[in-house]
Amino acid sequence: MYLSAAGSIGRREINQDSLLADRFLCQRGAPGAFQFQSPQLPAGPLAMALCDGACEQGDLASATAVDLLYQELEQLHTAKRAEDLHPVVDTLNQRVCDLFGPERNWDGLAISTLSLLCLGAGRYILCTIGDSPVYRLRGKELSQLSQVQTLAALHNGQNQPAALEAERHVLTNYLGRHQGGGSASAVWTEDVVLPGDLFLLCSDGILERLPEKKLRTALLRHGSEAAPELVRLAFRSGSTDNLTALVVRADG
Questions:
Q1: Domains of the chain
Q2: % residues pLDDT > 90 (the chain)
């Protein structure tokens, strides 16, 4: 396994992105910019997550999520199927719900997206909540593995007229959802991993002004070292959001 990670507060006053790269990196809302690169990771299972906070205390929500995932790495490493991770995701959602006391029963003060990718034994398990995208580059083909959970996607799925631009940023699912949240409303994907598969986890700020064509070109050109380049390209293209990217390549 080879990976790179990078992030930037971008043009925002606060960074609400948090990132976990197994036991090697746990980054919570970096106030400036960061880069991390591992030329070759030890053999074994690997768990990665990206959480993009939203609302007033979104930075606290995303940091809480990656901290808990770091504590649960053993369970993430030993998961054989998606059902094995349901308790972890349910605990994540409840922990964010309880940030300001278990008596608080309304949403909207501290919420976060979740993209959780577990690699091991030639397979991957992916759990996504919200709109932080996950891609796989296999050969020269780029595929989005995640499913966007926003008001715009909901309206488009119901064959309604084109959604307003503002609806692209309205989440219909998130960590911190009291009613109907957790593993039951997450999107789960499982599939085989082939040698050379390249996975990208990123916050939606990366794609705000960066089309998938440029995303694919950067991954093809830089491979597992592409994360800093993606952050740089997104910022240069005018993204107004926080920027975080993690790229990992599976070998053997």
A1: 2-249 (3.60.40.10)
A2: 81
